[in-house]
Amino acid sequence: MLELSILGFLAEEPLHGYELKERIKALSGHVRPVSDGALYPAINRLVAAGRLEQHTEEGASAAPRRVLSLTAQGREDLLERLRSPKPAEISDHVRFNTVLAFLRQLDDPAEQAAVLRRRLDFLETPASFFYRDGEPVRAEQAGDLFRQGMLRVARATGVAERAWLREAIEVLGQPSRART
C-alpha cells in the first residue's frame, strides 16, 4: 500500500520526500504510520524500476531537496494497481481507503464501478469479529458490553459504507454530465 500511496500522490503533482511522507501520514498514518526506513527504500525501488524520476532543487533555506515525479511507466503501474486491487486491498478497510483515495485516476467509470462492486460484494458477505459454532456472532449475541460495542459500530459503519457504494456505483453508471 505504501507504493500505491507514493504513485497515487505523485500522479497528482511532483513532491519532495517530506511532502510525500506528510501526505501518506495524513491518509493512513494514524492507523499505519510510515517511517523513513520504509518510505525511502520504497521510493528507491520505484526509481530503480523506472516508475519515478527524481531531480534536485534548491532547498528553501539550506540543503537541496530531491523532488520526485511519476513517469509514464509509473502511471501505468498505478492504473493497473487501481484496476485490479489485491483481495486484501478490497477486504481491509484502511487498504481499501488507499485505493479509494486514488480511484479517480482511472478515467473509465466502468472500471471505477467494478472496484466498488468488489468491495460491496465483500461487505455483503456475512462476517464478524467473533464466531460461535462456525457462525458469525451478532452484536445482540455477544454477551459482552465491549464486544457488543465493537459489533454495533462495525454494523453501523458497514451499513453506511454499503449505502454509499451502491449510490456511487449508480452514479458511475449514469451519463458523464450526471457525475459532476
| Class by alpha and beta content | mainly alpha
Largest sheet: 3 strands, antiparallel
- Coarse morphology: globular
| H/E element order | HEHHEEHHHHEEH
List low-pLDDT spans: none
Strand content: 5-15%
Q: Record the strand order, biggest sheet.
A: 1-3-2
**Number of helical elements:** 8
Describe this structure in words.
The protein is mainly α and 180 residues long. 59% of the residues lie in helices and 10% in strands. It contains eight helices and five strands, in the order αβααββααααββα. It has a three-stranded antiparallel β-sheet with strand order 1-3-2. Strands 4-5 form a two-stranded antiparallel sheet. Strand 2 and strand 3 form a beta hairpin. Helix 1 (2-12) crosses helix 4, helix 1 (2-12) packs parallel to helix 6 (93-102) and helix 7 packs antiparallel against helix 8 (145-172). The radius of gyration is 20 Å and the shape is globular. The two termini are 28 Å apart.
